[in-house]
From TrEMBL:
Protein name listed in UniProt: JmjC domain-containing protein
UniProt lineage: Bacteria, Bacillati, Actinomycetota, Actinomycetes, Streptosporangiales
Required cofactor names: Fe(2+)
InterPro entries named in the record: JmjC_dom, NO66-like, WH-like_DNA-bd_sf
SUPFAM superfamilies documented for this protein: Clavaminate synthase-like
SMART domains for the chain: JmjC (SM00558)
Residue span(s) of domain JmjC: 85-243
Record carries keyword Metal-binding: yes
Annotated keywords: Iron, Metal-binding
Matching PANTHER family: MINA53 MYC INDUCED NUCLEAR ANTIGEN, RIBOSOMAL OXYGENASE 1
Amino acid sequence: MIDMITEVLGGEEFLAQALGRTHRVFPAPPKAGDRFAGLLTWPALNQILDTHRLEPPRLRLALDGQAVPTSEYCERRTFRQMPPWDAPQPHLLAAQLRNGATLVLDAIEEMHPPIRDLVSALERDLRTGIQVNAYASWTAKEGFGVHWDDHDIIVIQVSGAKRWRIYGPTRPAPLYRDISFDDTPPEHPIDEFTLHAGDVLHVPRGWWHAAAASTGQPSLHLTCGLTTHTGIDLLSWLVDELRVHEAIRADLPRISDSDGHTTWRREVGKLVSERLDDPSLIASYLTARDAAYGTRGGFSLPHAVHEQLPSDPDLSVWLTTPRAVTRKAEQTVALEAAGQRWVLTRKATPLLQMLASGRPVTLGALAQAAGISTAQTARLLERLLRAGVLAVSGR
């Protein structure tokens, strides 16, 4: 799989100079227009549409900045033991697409392993949550018009071509829950270009933009939406961290107790200031978010139901949380994942580091790295499997 950050976006230069700061296009090298073809093919998209219960708004159509009513392309179905749902009809959906609508499928990483693997790798590199939406369109009509997103996006043109207009921001760092909104886009774009298959685009949050397919060929692209980490998020986390102090947990002074108000403000202000003065505060916040991040997939039948994992050196395992944290101490090493923590002897450090890489690894390779038997390794992995942070495949 392509290393998106290093091989496509330029590694540290992208992280330091472009991410969240300015839009940038990353053209495909010559003869590399098919480099993302394996992420999502038209047959794979058809199979997802055929085999998943994709009720709007997860699957939706958009045209000229408006959602197409589901009644225009869905049929209401009822079941005895399941909730009724609006089932998209292939012929009706295709008619809307011919008329210029754009097909949108949210969180496609949950349904398609190649995209899930891409997302897991990006989440490890960027240390943030990512959701991928797929967009398919056939005409020059715009699905959404000129708009901005409340998160940075990385756009991957899988096939076909898409015309883009970038207008720039009108409100710095806008939020989903904000105190002010600017609904008027700039009058003129600052950049116009066409993304071709294999190209990648980054657009920061709050930057107005619009896109439409190039006439005459279908366009299929993926948009990776990056979860933001703002000062509001850090302060919310910090408030939870401060619950250890009695002064934070205690009732506020009575309204008439002016001296109590002064004492409380001084004491709490000192606690908050001390934490804000800690040079490692932001790093601690990011590490805490990594350790608490959830899992992706992980069903491991039949192994998960068995009493014990077999001591098979060829058994393949991997962590289902992409942002696991390992912490070394003098005599121990800890693994933190999905809000849980395991403490092992320092001897297990190579084993945990291999798991934390997110790549599948065999039980035999893990045992060799830690210098323990495959049976001992299997017993350790059972704990992670039972906790929901490990997946298993093999015989």
